[in-house]
Amino acid sequence: MICFQTLIIYIIPLSIIALIPSLIWAFEEKLYLMVVVDILSVGMAIFTGIKKGIKIKQRKLLFIGTVYILSSFLIYYVGLNSTLYLLAACFLATFIYTFKNQYAPAFFNVYISVFYIVLYYLELTPPHNINFKTSELFAVFSNLIFLSFLVCSLVPKLFNGLDESFKNNIKHTTKIEIQNEVLKEITWIQSHVVRTPLSRLMAITNLLKENDNTEEEKIFLMDNISVSCNELDQIIQDIVSKSEKIRSSEK
């Protein structure tokens, strides 16, 4: 939630910059409703970004709804040149929200396109938008709908692929960290644990080289050799076991 909220806060200054030329154009064309919609859209973006206590799902829906409302009004007042806003709205909706039907944003664009075409043929659109050819109208909206469904199809696959790659990287990193820990442990065993019985064996060997050892001393030294050999055998088995753990983690 913090990441999405922070993203909106970063977008707010850009929205205000984009608002200025839009307001100038709307005032020049005397489209005062568009002025109201522009101001309310930026205000809703600010509200969505800074208002505390809003759940992440509601925050995303508010933002998506604002973008779609603004895009719809732009298409109504500006005409076909603003269909790009609907495509951007579709991409944003797919990017930030998981719908039960992944093609829901594309269907929104279908409904808005059909509604605009109906208004166009009933001559209920602004006068400067009546001079489009029928072929041009259908070409633009058919391309919009095609691209919208394409976005809804590809964007989730792209992010699923990125998510899978991210999970695999984490898994691989974790595996390497485990292997490094085991290798450190093996290194420590070889440099410290092995040294104790090995030093003892070396000392006993030197003592056995002396010819003045009594039978009891020889028996004692031989017993210690046996103990040291058993210790070394156990240590070697531990090292082999840990090595097998590294090999099994590589599979």
* Largest β-sheet summary: none
Shape: rod-shaped
Tell me the span between the first and last alpha carbons: 37 Å
Query: How many discrete structural domains?
Result: 2
**CA radius of gyration:** 37 Å
Domain MASE11: 4-162
EC number: 2.7.13.3
Pfam family, one: MASE11
Catalytic activity: ATP + protein L-histidine = ADP + protein N-phospho-L-histidine
Protein model, in words:
This is histidine kinase. Residues 4-162 form the MASE11 domain. It catalyses: ATP + protein L-histidine = ADP + protein N-phospho-L-histidine. It is built from eight helices and no strands. With 251 residues, the protein is mainly alpha-helical. It has two domains: 2-167, no CATH class; 169-249. Helix 4 (83-96) packs parallel to helix 6 (134-193) and helix 7 packs antiparallel against helix 8 (215-249).
